[in-house]
Amino acid sequence: xxxxxxxxxxxxxxxxxxxxxxxxxxxxxxxxxxxxxxxxxxxxxxxxxxxxxxxxxxxxxxxxxxxxxxxxxxxxxxxxxxxxxxxxxxxxxxxxxxxxxxxxxxxxxxxxxxxxxxxxxxxxxxxxxxxxxxxxxxxxxxxxxxxxxxxxxxxxxxxx
Length: 160
Prior knowledge:
The chain is mainly α. The protein has six helices and no strands. The longest helix is centred in the middle third of the chain and has 26 residues, at 47-72. The chain is elongated. Mean pLDDT is 93; it is low at 1-7.
């Protein structure tokens, strides 16, 4: 990505900050659910507990990933420069544990409140994250770190 002067910016140039995309998916899903509720689970199912477990699993993955970033001394926000390829913690298993945590959180919330709308919004959320954030991050990391990033990418899958 280049700035107005044609200089290369040291960020991924993501189209949206991922927490904002997640919050928008949640808000739109809850608004749609309020306007026109669509349920997908039987009422006798312990949806709150199951959804809570999924949500907390996503949150735990997100916190573990953020802690790994901090230990490596690099930035988490997509608007800040990346200073290191993190390959410790959950980054040994997936290149995108923060986004996986967000997906689990959204699924957990959908289950907890029994809202089909929140599940439906996983698809546009995925598309925005995959193409508007991850694709740009991958291109940025490839430009910035070259072979170090390519070797990591060859070793660790994008999602799982």
